[in-house]
Amino acid sequence: MGLATFWFILTAVLWAGFFVLEGFDLGVGLLHNLVGRDEAGRRTAINTIGPLWDGNEVWLIVAAAAMFAAFPGWYATMFSAYYLVMVLILVGLILRGVSFEFRGKVDSPRWRLVWDTTLALGSLLVPFFVGVALGGLLHGVPIGQDEEFTGGFGDLFSGYAVFTGLTLLLLCLLHGACFLALRTTGEVRARARRLGRIVAPITALAVLAFLPWTHSVAGKGALPGIVQLLALLAVLAAYWLVTTRHEGWAFTATCFTIATCMLSLFADLYPHVMVSSTNPAYSLTVDGTASGSYALKVMTVVAVVLLPVVLAYQGWTYHVFRRRVSPEQFAPAAQPAAE
Predict the structure, then answer these.
(1) CA 142 to CA 148: how far, in whole Å?
(2) Residue closest to 101 by CA, chosen among 113, 124, 119, 88
(3) Which residue in 21, 62, 165, 280 is a FRET match for 127, CA 20 to 30 A apart?
(4) pTM of model > 0.90
(5) 118-130: per-residue pLDDT in tens?
(6) CA distance linking residue 125 with residue 129, whole number of Å
(7) DSSP class of residue 149?
(8) C-alpha distances out from residue 266 to 4, 107, 171, Å
């Protein structure tokens, strides 16, 4: 296996890692208004991801940086084609960030309603439009012989790309519901369980349609490969575990479902990195867009040294903040009785 292929696999792993880790806090951002019927409930939901969300977003930056450094041709064509989509993703990330920062600055229900809405909106924009962009890589967009994007904004929204975005959105919802059930207590936990049972069958159906469609779009037939088969088993297991209230295992199953769905997409994309709908001969390939051998060697040494450090730090962070969050922690203090 050459270094270009190694970096393509590493890029796929980084995107999978982003959705596994960021997926549940995107889901919490979407669900916090539903599981929290009062301020204490909503703060409970938000505080489950408070110490984690910004560290999880680092995986998005690292995935994009890996594409930029290892595959500059891919990065240039994709980011110029998806310029407006990237702006919408950035808007979503900014809305989430400022919502976390500003929500508690003013003690006013109307003020908090504004930031609760922007948090939910940002949490919707990010997975949907990242899914549209990743789905478009496999389905194909207009690319000319000079590796330049030749289409318009509407060409990015093929049926498959939109369905990829919707599938990732549903997976984040289910992932978030499982995480909330695992990390909260009382009514918030009970509502997260109910929402998980509602979302689980819809998500399972979406994944059951997404995987053979992905295989078919890649021209490999409808029969699943090993990765697709693992993803199918994982989503069915997640559905069963959510309905039987095995929260820890359900969360593990949603992690595995998201990871295998993402790896399935990249496995079907290989050896291409971006398919041209204009002419298959104009498609961008792993070897054709990779950086030089020396650059890949240096990057490989850096990745081998730093990646375990990042994983160890994030593992320690999750261990420190592993306790459940209770609505009672945020309930208003009782007023002393008058004498």
Answers:
(1) 9
(2) 119
(3) 280
(4) yes
(5) 999 999 999 999 9
(6) 6
(7) B
(8) 14, 46, 17
